[in-house]
From TrEMBL:
Protein name (Swiss-Prot/TrEMBL): Gag-polypeptide of LTR copia-type
Entry superkingdom: Eukaryota
Transmembrane annotation, as ranges: none
Region (Disordered): 292-333
Ranges of Low complexity composition bias in the record: 313-325
Ranges of biased composition (kind: Polar residues): 303-312
C-alpha cells in the first residue's frame, strides 16, 4: 500500500511559520506607518480627531509639495457658478482656460482632503462639497471656537508650568513627553521663550542630575543653549553613565606604582620602620645599701637581633627612693 503524502501545509515547519508571521507583522507595521505619514502619492490620513494637531501640519506639507495653488484652495471660497458650469459637460467646453484651471485645482484639492480623512470622520461632514467648507468645519470641530481654544491654551500653559518627571520615568520618556507638549503648544499658538523651555525642563529632572546641571550652570552653558541641545547633552551623559556601570572590574596591582622593585602582585610593601629587636624587664629587688646594684636589671636579647648597640634604662631600686631628711627619724636631732 502506497503511503499518502501529507498535505503541503503540514510540511511547513514551525520556523517557516514563524518567519511568515514576522513578515506579516512587519508588513502591517509598514502599511500603518504609510497610512499615518503618507507617501508621495498618498496623503497622510486623519484616523482620529485627537490627531488633528500633527496631521494638519503633515497635510499642509504634502499639499504644498503638490503645489502652492492647491493649498490656497483650502482658504479660498470656490465660485458656485464654476461648480455648476464645470459639472456639466456641455458648459465645461465653453469655459475659459483660466476657469478650467480653477475648476481642476478645486477638484484636486477636494480629492486630497477627502482621501486624507478616515471614513467615520468624513461621514460627519459629507454635506461639505468644497475644499474650504470642509476644511473650515474640520478646524471648528477639532480646534473649537475662540472660547474653547482659549481654554485649551490655558490648560497647556498650566501643563507646561507644572511639567515634572513622573515616577520611574526614563530620560528618553521624559524628553519625548516634553516634545509632545511643545508640539501641542505650537499647534494652539502657546509661546514660550528658549530660556523658559530650558528652565522648565531642568526643573523637571530628578535629583540625580543636580550635580551635572550645577556644572552646566556654573559654566554658563544653560544661558546659551536651547532645550534640544540640553536634552542632547543629557542623553550623552546618560549613555556614558550606563557604559561606566557595565564596565568590567579589572584586578588592581598597586605595587606597580608604589616604587616596589618588580611590582609583583601579592607582595606587601616593606615596612620603613625598624623592628623591635630587644626587650627589657626590670627586676626590682630590695637592697640594704644605696650603692648601684647591677643585678637589679636583667636583659633578654632576641636571637635574631642585628642591633650593634643596646640601650638599657636603669630601674631604680626601692632604696633609691629615699625619704627627705625632715622625714627620716634616724637623722632627727
Amino acid at each position: 500500500m502506497q503511503a499518502i503524502a501529507p498535505p503541503q501545509a503540514a510540511m511547513i515547519t514551525a520556523n517557516q511559520w514563524a518567519l511568515v508571521t514576522n513578515q506579516s507583522s512587519s508588513i502591517q507595521a509598514m502599511m500603518q506607518n504609510d497610512n499615518e505619514t503618507g507617501t508621495s502619492t498618498k496623503p497622510p490620513k486623519l484616523n482620529h480627531i485627537n490627531d488633528w494637531g500633527w496631521w494638519k501640519e503633515r497635510l499642509r506639507t504634502y499639499v504644498q509639495g503638490q503645489g502652492q495653488d492647491l493649498w490656497m484652495c483650502f482658504f479660498t471660497a470656490f465660485d458656485n457658478d464654476l461648480e455648476v458650469a464645470g459639472s456639466n459637460p456641455q458648459t465645461y467646453s465653453t469655459m475659459s482656460d483660466e476657469d478650467k484651471k480653477k475648476f481642476k485645482l478645486e477638484k484636486k484639492a477636494f480629492m486630497i482632503l477627502t482621501q486624507a480623512l478616515h471614513r467615520d470622520i468624513y461621514h460627519q461632514f459629507v454635506y461639505c462639497t468644497t475644499t474650504k467648507s470642509l476644511w473650515d468645519m474640520l478646524t471648528l470641530r477639532c480646534e473649537g471656537n475662540a472660547q474653547s481654544r482659549k481654554i485649551k491654551q490655558e490648560l497647556l500653559k498650566k501643563e507646561f508650568e507644572g511639567f515634572t518627571c513622573m515616577e520611574n520615568e526614563t530620560l528618553a520618556e521624559l524628553s519625548t513627553r516634553f516634545h509632545h507638549l511643545l508640539s501641542e503648544m505650537f499647534a494652539f499658538r502657546v509661546t514660550a521663550t528658549p530660556q523658559e523651555m530650558v528652565k522648565r525642563f531642568t526643573d523637571s529632572l530628578p535629583s540625580k542630575w543636580s550635580s551635572f546641571l550645577e556644572i552646566l550652570k556654573e559654566n554658563g552653558v544653560l544661558d546659551t543653549i536651547t532645550v534640544y541641545e540640553l536634552i542632547q547633552k543629557l542623553e550623552n551623559k546618560d549613555v556614558e553613565e550606563k557604559l561606566k556601570a557595565k564596565r568590567t572590574l579589572t584586578p588592581q596591582n598597586p605595587e606597580m606604582y608604589y616604587g616596589i622593585a618588580g611590582g609583583i602582585s601579592g607582595e606587601k610593601p616593606a615596612s620603613q620602620h625598624a623592628k623591635l629587636q630587644s626587650a627589657f624587664i626590670s627586676n626590682i629587688r630590695p637592697s640594704t645599701t644605696n650603692q648601684f646594684d647591677p643585678s637589679a636589671y636583667t636583659m633578654y636579647s632576641r636571637p635574631d637581633s642585628s642591633s650593634q648597640q643596646q640601650y638599657v634604662q636603669p630601674t631604680p631600686t626601692a632604696q633609691q627612693f629615699t625619704q627627705p631628711p625632715f622625714l627620716d627619724p634616724s637623722r632627727a636631732q
